[in-house]
Structure to design on (259 residues):
């Protein structure tokens, strides 16, 4: 069995002690990180390699940044999302895990898109269109893959305390949701909902006072499985306790287990 974690750490250097705790307690074979917020040269490689992980990084100074850590043999597939050669934001990383039944994993930091009256929203929609095109090719090729990350998408009314507050936000805008549903309709499985159908199971609580204490969160971090990967799912859960640590990320880890 292989445990795969996805986590927006909101700065790998600040949250390194929390990552090491995750490694020791959750014991994942593969970790998909988002918002590492550091260049490759300043990524804390030694501490992570000492825990037995290989590292593939797509870093960026102060913003964005994704990484894949693996105790299993892996090889880089691509470190960018195809479709726009002018896009220099470090938001996508894909690697193949070389096990008996190989699986490809992607670490995704999908654009937030706010405010919607700026060029950030068209960028988000274009990014989602490119993701759809890329994933469609993988589906046509009958690949086994898992797409983990911070999608900055609130899929349903049960993924926020009061969804009416988000109708004009890029995270739940009709154009964002349309693209997310198109992606899901390629045949992807929402791993968490396969094992936990309870409403209001969140992965993110902002830093405003009372959000965490009142459980006023959002579910915007997702592990999406291709059909062949979904057949191998055993479990999927959220590690909420990491939000209560000292100087926490505003996101918590989400993990799935495959056979």
């Amino acid at each position: 069995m292989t445990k795969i974690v996805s986590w927006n750490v909101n700065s790998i250097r600040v949250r390194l002690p929390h990552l090491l705790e995750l490694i020791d307690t959750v014991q994942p074979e593969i970790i998909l990180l988002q918002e590492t917020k550091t260049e490759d040269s300043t990524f804390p490689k030694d501490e992570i390699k000492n825990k037995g992980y290989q590292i593939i990084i797509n870093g960026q100074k102060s913003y964005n940044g994704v990484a894949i850590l693996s105790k299993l043999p892996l090889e880089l597939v691509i470190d960018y999302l195809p479709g726009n050669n002018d896009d220099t934001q470090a938001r996508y990383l894909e690697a193949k895990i070389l096990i008996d039944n190989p699986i490809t994993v992607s670490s995704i930091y999908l654009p937030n898109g706010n405010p919607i009256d700026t060029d950030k929203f068209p960028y988000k929609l274009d990014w989602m269109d490119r993701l759809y095109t890329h994933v469609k090719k993988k589906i046509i090729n009958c690949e086994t893959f898992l797409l983990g990350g911070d999608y900055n998408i609130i899929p349903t009314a049960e993924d926020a305390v009061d969804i009416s507050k988000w109708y004009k936000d890029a995270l739940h805008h009709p154009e964002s949701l349309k693209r997310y549903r198109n992606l899901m309709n390629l045949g992807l499985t929402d791993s968490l909902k396969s094992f936990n159908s309870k409403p209001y199971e969140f992965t993110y609580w902002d830093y405003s006072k009372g959000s965490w204490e009142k459980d006023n969160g959002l579910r915007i971090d997702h592990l999406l499985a291709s059909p062949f990967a979904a057949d191998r799912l055993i479990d999927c859960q959220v590690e909420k306790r990491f939000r209560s640590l000292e100087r926490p990320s505003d996101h918590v880890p989400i993990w799935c287990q495959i056979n």
